[in-house]
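Weekly sync, protein design subgroup
Attendees: M.S., D.O., the rotation student, P.L. (late)

Item 1: inverse folding check
M.S. brought a backbone from last month's batch and wanted to see whether the design step gives back something sensible before we order anything. D.O. pointed out we never logged the input encoding, so this time it goes straight into the notes. Structure tokens as presented (248 positions):
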């Protein structure tokens, strides 16, 4: 009986030694690729050997080693997949947080623009005047560089008010023939209208008038008064207005 037990023990020891020799020399960490050893696979193999040996002797130890290694490796792969999913989830949460922050900034910008638009509408609704005058040199119809910037700004404002129209009226001082001054005042008004168009105002929203020297009230020889009459007036007509707004 003792001899049989000794033989059984010797066979078990040999099986254990063989199975242990089959295990990887160095266990891999959690990031190892499939097919390489892992700590979980090694632990499963050793546990399988022990359980198999106790249950069915040396043959059971060999089978238990294989089953234990397979189960341990499967657990190792599941742990890897879980880690990758956690990383992806963390990245998704971070991206969602960034998107939420961007949406919040956009909402804030839209609210500011809406408030600015409401302030502008209130300002326009309570004003009786919106426009400017453009002065010209004697016998000249070109818009000066000094007048260009305010004209462009006014044009941009009118372009943002789809229902508004612009009245552009040209004038001349009393010197020279009537027909010549009528044509000169028209050219001046058309040059101003062209600048407004460059700022975005549609041509059909611009009303052009030419008054020549018909509105002149300057005394003969009054050069300062003449300078005031060489002009183009630009007036914005708002939707609620029944007449062109006039400057005080």
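Designed sequence read out in the meeting:
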């Amino acid at each position: 009986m003792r001899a049989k037990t000794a033989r059984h023990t010797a066979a078990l020891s040999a099986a254990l030694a063989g199975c242990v020799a089959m295990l990887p020399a160095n266990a891999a960490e959690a990031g190892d690729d499939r097919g390489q050893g892992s700590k979980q696979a090694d632990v499963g193999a050793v546990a399988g050997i022990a359980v198999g040996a106790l249950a069915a002797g040396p043959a059971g130890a060999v089978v238990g080693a294989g089953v234990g290694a397979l189960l341990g490796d499967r657990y190792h792969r599941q742990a890897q997949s879980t880690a990758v999913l956690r990383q992806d989830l963390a990245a998704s949460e971070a991206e969602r947080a960034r998107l939420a922050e961007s949406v919040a900034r956009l909402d804030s910008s839209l609210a500011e623009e809406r408030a600015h638009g409401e302030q502008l509408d209130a300002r326009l609704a309570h004003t009786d005047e919106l426009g400017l005058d453009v002065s010209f040199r004697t016998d000249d119809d070109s818009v000066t560089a000094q007048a260009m910037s305010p004209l462009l700004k006014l044009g941009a404002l009118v372009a943002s008010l789809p229902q508004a129209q612009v009245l552009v009226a040209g004038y001349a001082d009393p010197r020279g023939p009537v027909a010549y001054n009528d044509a000169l005042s028209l050219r001046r008004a058309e040059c101003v209208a062209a600048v407004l168009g460059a700022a975005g105002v549609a041509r059909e929203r611009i009303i052009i008038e030419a008054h020549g020297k018909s509105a002149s009230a300057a005394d003969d020889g009054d050069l300062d008064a003449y300078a005031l009459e060489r002009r183009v007036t630009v007036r914005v007509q708002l939707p609620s207005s029944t007449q062109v707004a006039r400057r005080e």
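Discussion: The longest strand covers residues 231-237. DSSP finds five helices and four strands in the chain.
Action: P.L. to compare against the previous round before Friday.
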